[in-house]
Specification:
Shape: elongated
Structural class: alpha/beta
Bound molecules: adenosine monophosphate, magnesium ion
Number of helices: 28
Helix content: 25-40%
Radius of gyration: 37 Å
Number of strands: 36
């Protein structure tokens, strides 16, 4: 790291870089008058910032700095010792205690800030007083154990009101063996101050021990000179305006890839992990930074911002960057609280390349350093972000570059070594501290143990290095396309995606016919009017199939069905399949123009409907009124067709972003493997009754309508509008001894809120699907239906019904679980590579259940279904992440598709409907 200076402060690095951005007069005159005025104002302000404001005369009393006010407030409200600034030394050799005591007194005399007393006056709020003479808080004791002694001194609180903010303790281990512990409160010091104090103490000790007077010059400035100067400077400059403008609309917080959410009370449990970057990488970092007119710190910060963006997808990341606050030469040897952590806001939106991200980071760092005279506490006051208990305002994570040089002061003839003391605190949720080492650069990750596991931090550290390396290798590639998954990640992910079941190539209606042969006299389908047996279902659907074949239905022909929930609906569906055709569900509740659109778009060979619904249905030349057609004259054996398992079984319309719903083409083989998996997993049998209540225009209704007749179980068709009426559902469940229910979570929520548990005792299986299931609804379901097992199933219409699943348990939160054995699920980055575990991305699906595509939309099909090294895949548009536990988590949508009670709605469709295009949105149906 070539650019870091003696104190390792990025401020120095920025000072060099900031010169690049100076305005020159030629450029100025090319600007519009308004911009000129602004530029001139900025220039004036900059001159003021550059030292035109004189250091104050000592004419008034001390004034607390903004940072001190912030620190005082923390001390008053939370107390504790997290802000004790400590250092400790082991000193071997003859120690002159008197000389040391005099040296300590002299240090306190030299720095009035160490004699400060912080008080709350009756009317005038918090205020600081400087005691004119104060004896240093110096004590000696005989001690047995170094660590215990240091720990007890460091963790002892200060009483700021009593003027106690600096103490020195000398522990005597033996005649020539001592431990010196120096502790100050952060309100009067910082880590630079700590070194100033130790250095002065050492010099004074040497002077006094040798019988000389102090060899130190009197300090030219005191901290309270600085605080008055700072107040004046801010009054004259544009720095506050700049911060207000820069942080306007900043995210409330930057999401961190943590294992657990931040605790509501400030957690202080912290731990550290060090990750080494080798010299070769650091050399490349240096070279690249130089080429970008940036500092290595800015490049590291860009990599960190990029990593956080990869996890959060927030498009806006704020990272704290501690600066020494001593960028003015005169302040370098002043003791006091100068350190200032500036919020660096980085625009990570729009898939920037690494190079762009470096440029953005550089601009935001330079801007911040130019306006660094404003203390963080003041920025917070000006910006007034919403405060959340336990969370640092404006940023939750920081990054800094430090020098790792440990300066040990020279105490005359004593042999002095520094004692490492780890307070174990985490002031921020996550802090990255980079420092040079002989072998390159070490990145110290300091993290809150409330939020992070060690393994997570190790993984993040590896990913940070990988992102940095890949970014330097491919600076013009989008950062969100850099492949961060390691070989181990990929091996593990492929284990989660093992395809173990081979599709058998069955036809849906064959599976039903086989069941009819096994249980011909068992009740198959019922509704409020009665029941038909498996034989009757088989024979009636065969007869209907003959009729449909006579109307011209062939493999891949579409037959629209517009019927209310009833036995006839089931006969119609099975009949279409047996005729070799594909059914297209048209929900009679949909608006007429939407029905007409779908009927036309699917190019149906026939329309199956009934007298009762016929009036609201668009006309079709081949309309079959199922209650009028005489099936008794037709054969009850199945027609012979040449339908194969790669022919269509159904076409289901889903909302389309262009304003027109699109028909998804599903083949028999895809649906068959899904239903066979359902059967292997949930084992429906004659003892089961499945309630048919899902509107049949949802693919999930296929579980009820298609799976049940393959299993020997009974299918009861709820009253057409019954699915929204909990008391009706409870009534049917108890009357029909229903064992299997299938719900969209929002409906499950309504159901479990009002159900009568006594009438639902027979329920053994509840399947939730179609939208995100919350833990609350899951828990409520498990409580109210204690005998039932609850499963969460996930799948889009484009991949037969469900492709991932998990049983929901009280003791774990909901996830999508794992892919089922005939499907694969991959989380991709923007480059089409797999994301590592824990990193969110777009969910892509593969396997035997994928749809053929969209009806009559080759371009859309090619966009959503594509060939990849991993096979043919479907892009879901869902945001998901493989959890570290090997469970898939659903995180929402990447586009503006929404779900309303399970209805999939592209907002684009709603918009185009509103501007009068073809098709009426499902949204209108649901909201109405
Ligand atoms: P659809 O095509 O109507 O089945 O809608 C599919 C979409 O519904 C998916 O892409 C998801 O956005 C959402 N979805 C389906 N099942 C689930 C589930 N179990 N959890 C969360 N979202 C789901
Ligand atoms: Mg679905």
């Amino acid at each position: 790291m070539t650019a870091s200076k003696a104190d390792g402060s990025p401020v120095d690095e920025a000072a060099a870089a900031s010169d690049l951005g100076r305005l020159n007069p030629a450029k100025l005159s090319a600007l519009s008058p308004a911009k000129q005025a602004l530029a001139e104002r900025r220039l004036r302000a900059r001159r003021a910032n550059n030292g035109a404001v004189p250091w104050s005369d000592r004419d008034s009393g001390p004034e607390m700095s903004d940072a001190q006010q912030g620190m005082f407030l923390i001390d008053q409200t939370t107390g504790g010792t997290a802000y004790n600034v400590a250092q400790a030394f082991r000193m071997l050799g003859p120690l002159d205690t008197d000389a040391l005591k005099r040296a300590v007194d002299e240090v306190v005399r030299r720095h009035e800030v160490l004699r400060s007393r912080f008080v709350i006056g009756p009317n005038d709020g918090a205020r600081v007083e400087v005691l004119t003479s104060a004896e240093a808080d110096f004590d000696t004791a005989t001690v047995a154990d170094v660590d215990t002694f240091v720990h007890s001194e460091v963790t002892r609180p200060f009483d700021l009101g009593a003027g106690s903010n600096f103490r020195i303790r000398l522990g005597r281990l033996g005649p020539d063996d001592h431990v010196l512990v120096m502790v100050t409160h952060h309100i009067v010091s910082d880590s630079v101050s700590k070194h100033i104090i130790a250095g002065e103490l050492a010099t004074l000790y040497a002077d006094f021990r040798a019988g000389r007077p102090s060899s130190l010059p009197e300090p030219a400035l005191q901290y309270y000179d600085y605080t008055r100067w700072q107040a004046k400077l801010l009054a004259d400059s544009d720095q506050l305006d700049w911060w207000r403008a820069t942080l306007q609309g900043a995210p409330e917080w930057t999401e961190l890839p943590c294992d657990r959410p931040a605790p509501s009370a400030a957690g202080v449990g912290g731990a550290k992990h060090t990750h080494q970057l080798d010299s070769a990488l650091v050399r490349r970092l240096d070279t690249y930074a130089r080429g970008q007119r940036a500092t290595p710190f800015m490049v590291l910060l860009a990599a960190y911002a990029g990593l956080l963006e990869r996890y959060s997808g927030q498009g806006d990341v704020v990272i704290g960057s501690p600066t020494t606050g001593r960028h003015r030469e005169e302040l370098r040897s002043v003791v006091g609280l100068f350190i200032n952590t500036l919020p660096l806001r980085v625009d990570t939106s729009g898939s920037p390349s690494f190079e762009q991200l470096v440029a953005r980071t550089r601009a935001s760092a330079i801007g911040a350093y130019r306006h660094q005279d404003v203390a963080f506490d003041r920025i917070v006051r000006e910006v007034a972000p919403r405060r959340v208990a336990g969370r640092n305002p404006l940023f939750q994570t920081i990054m800094t570059v430090k020098s790792d040089r440990v300066t040990v002061p020279d105490f005359a003839e004593l042999d002095v070594t520094a004692i490492n003391y780890d307070g174990g605190w985490a002031k921020f949720d996550l802090a990255l501290i980079c420092y040079e080492t002989p072998d390159g650069l070490a990145v110290l990750w300091q993290y809150s143990t409330d939020m992070f596991d060690e393994s997570t931090i190790q993984r993040l550290a590896g990913q940070f290095e990988r992102l940095l390396t890949l970014g330097l290798d491919n600076p013009t590639q989008p950062v969100d396309a850099l492949g961060l998954a390691t070989v181990d990640d990929l091996r593990y992910l492929s284990g989660l995606n093992e395809v173990t079941a081979n599709p058998t190539g069955s036809l849906l209606h064959d599976l039903m016919a086989q069941q009819a042969l096994r249980t011909p006299d068992a009740q198959a389908v019922g509704d409020e009017t009665g029941w038909i047996t498996y034989r009757e279902l088989d024979e009636r659907s065969n007869a209907l199939a003959h009729h449909l074949v006579s109307l011209g239905v062939r493999p891949d022909s579409r037959v629209a069905i517009c019927l209310n929930r009833s036995i006839a609906l089931e006969v119609a569906l099975v009949g279409v399949l047996k005729a070799g055709g594909a059914y297209v569900p048209l929900d009679p509740g949909y608006p007429a123009d939407r029905l007409a659109y779908m009927l036309d778009d699917c190019d149906a060979v026939a329309l199956l409907t009934a007298t009762a619904v016929h009036t609201s249905v668009p006309s079709h030349p081949n309309t079959v009124l199922i209650d009028q057609v005489d099936l008794s004259t037709l054969p009850t054996s199945p027609p012979v067709t040449d339908v194969r398992s790669d022919n269509l079984a159904y076409v289901i319309y889903t909302s389309g972003s262009t304003g027109r719903p699109k028909g998804v083409l599903l083949e028999h083989r895809s649906v068959a493997v899904q239903l066979q998996w359902m059967q292997r997993t949930f084992a429906l049998g004659p003892q089961d009754t499945v309630l048919q209540k899902t509107p049949f225009s949802f693919d999930v209704a296929g579980w009820e309508l298609l799976w049940t007749p393959m299993s020997g179980a009974r299918l009861f068709m709820a009253r057409p509008d019954g699915h929204r009426d909990t008391s009706y559902l409870c009534d049917v469940i108890s009357r029909q001894r229903v064992t299997v229910l299938n719900f969209v979570p929002s409906m499950l929520s309504a159901f479990t809120d009002h159900l009568d548990p006594d009438r639902c005792r027979t329920v053994r299986l509840v399947i939730a699907c179609g939208e995100a299931l919350s833990d609350a609804v899951k828990d409520r379901c498990l409580e109210t239906l204690p005998r039932a097992e609850l499963f969460n199933l996930y799948g889009p219409t484009e991949a037969a019904i469900s492709v991932a699943y998990e049983q929901c348990l009280k003791e774990r939160s909901v996830s999508l679980g794992r892919p089922i054995p005939t499907s694969t699920a991959y989380v991709f980055d923007q480059g089409g590579g797999q994301q590592p575990l824990g990193m969110p991305g777009e969910l892509n699906l593969g396997g035997a259940q994928l749809a053929r595509g969209y009806l009559g939309r080759p371009e859309l099909t090619a966009e959503k279904f594509f060939d990849h090294d991993l096979g043919r895949l479907y892009r879901t548009g869902d945001r998901a992440v493989w959890g570290l536990d090997g469970r898939l988590q659903f995180l929402g949508r990447l586009d503006d598709q929404v779900k309303l009670r399970g209805f999939r709605i592209e907002l684009g469709e709603v918009e185009s409907v509103l501007v009068g295009h073809v098709g009426v949105s499902q949204a209108c149906v649901v909201v109405a």
